[in-house]
């Protein structure tokens, strides 16, 4: 009888311990941990050379892009604005040689500077620029070459919706000791950046419904030397 009692007294704590372990594990299997989605808005990953006197930092308050789109027949035209989030222009030996400009796609406005109109909301959805997924566009300047008198050709890559294509932009550039002002006009084929809404290349539509593949931009950039 003593042997049986001793054996039982040794087994009982082990059974209690196992019961406690299973009491924690089993509810976890029945009620798996819910995946918490990150609802924070995407933030810029662009790194700038702050503090370097060769770089002029773009002033987001003074810089602006005007955009223009139209139907294929040109009868229905829409215009508006969009703004930079940050950027820099590189100067060497008194000449503009490079830089990068980041465009905040969430700042799209219509011609009345409305930021929440039906047009603006449509431009932000997947039919056009899918801003929730691609909140920033970028212009990377790789070289600047002389053009006509008073003009430069800014060569680089334009990234929209995560897609990059080379661009050459004629611009008027004024460089002073404290600031750079650049003004440019250029046109892109939106379909190269997978903006296909009502494009005749991809949809069979009536003439008055078809939209032009061209989007025109007029851009003004003011960049200031960092002190």
From TrEMBL:
Question: Known InterPro entries for this protein?
Answer: Lipid/polyisoprenoid-bd_YceI (IPR007372), TTHA0802/YceI-like_sf (IPR036761)
User: Pfam families in the record, alphabetically?
Assistant: YceI
Q: Which residue intervals define the domain Lipid/polyisoprenoid-binding YceI-like in the entry?
A: 55-224
- List, alphabetically, the PANTHER family matched: PROTEIN YCEI (PTHR34406)
Protein name, UniProt field: YceI family protein
Q: Which organism is it from?
A: Mucilaginibacter pallidiroseus
């Amino acid at each position: 009888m003593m042997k049986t009692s001793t054996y039982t007294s040794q087994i009982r704590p082990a059974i209690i311990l196992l019961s406690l372990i299973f009491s924690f594990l089993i509810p976890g299997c029945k009620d798996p941990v819910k995946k918490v989605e990150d609802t924070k808005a995407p933030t810029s990953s662009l790194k700038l050379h702050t503090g370097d006197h060769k770089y002029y930092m773009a002033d987001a308050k003074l810089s602006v892009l005007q955009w223009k789109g139209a139907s294929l027949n040109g009868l229905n035209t829409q215009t508006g604005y969009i703004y930079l989030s940050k950027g820099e222009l590189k100067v060497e030996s008194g000449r503009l040689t490079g830089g990068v400009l980041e465009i905040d796609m969430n700042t799209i406005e219509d011609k009345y500077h409305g930021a929440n109109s039906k047009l603006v909301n449509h431009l932000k959805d997947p039919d056009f620029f899918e801003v929730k997924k691609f909140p920033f566009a970028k212009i990377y300047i790789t070289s600047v070459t002389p053009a006509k008198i008073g003009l430069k050709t800014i060569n680089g890559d334009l990234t929209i919706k995560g897609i990059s294509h080379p661009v050459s932009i004629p611009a008027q550039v004024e460089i002073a000791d404290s600031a750079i002002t650049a003004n440019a006009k250029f046109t892109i084929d939106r379909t190269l950046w997978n903006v296909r809404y009502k494009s005749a290349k991809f949809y069979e539509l009536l003439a008055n419904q078809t939209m032009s593949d061209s989007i025109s931009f007029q851009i003004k950039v003011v960049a200031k030397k960092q002190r």
